[in-house]
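(Deposited chain)
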Amino acid sequence: MVSESEVSDRRLLRGARSRRLVTRRAADIASAEGLDGLSFGRLAEDLGLSKAGIQTLFRTKEQLQLATVAAAGEVFVEAVVRPSGDVAEGAARLRELIRRWLDYATEPVFPGGCFWGANLPEFDSRPGPVRDALARQHRDWTALIAREIGAAVEAGEVADLDPDLVAFQIVAVLEAANIALRLGDPSGIDKARRVADGLLGDDARPSGGQRTRKSR
């Protein structure tokens, strides 16, 4: 005889599987059409699930959007951030992060390209939980780039750059490459690589390979 706890566990597992299935599909849709393009009915039709069942999982459209943002973040971490952790920190890891980001946009991992490229412009002037979640992910990504630049500076691998400023530049260039791709111009990828190389390559290193300090 199956106990009540076992029945409950099975229901939780089914619910978790359904939630992952729905949010992954939702992230694909939102990458191309934005988070406002999501609806319980469309997801139910796409996935062969009941609309009522999806509504039970997420309750409101805003909760669905927030869960989709979180799911997109997990996909991005698995595609770009986590694999780069196997590379030594500093310049090598930074270049690996950039390479994997460009692959993430080129392949693409999401059918609409960069998930944040599609959704940040939609929500940047709309205060609320969804905007906050998107902004937090964007800050975390920029901070990760800045951290690796800082490590490269400390190791003397690059010139004495301002990590926050260069991280801002790199993220902006990657976003521009994503826009170019979406407009049918793949040359943006090579341009992004060249800009990153110009900032981080041998030409950015002081003569003699020694790091110089900026006056504070």
Remarks:
- The radius of gyration is 21 Å.
- The mean pLDDT is 88.
- The first helix runs from residue 4 to 33.
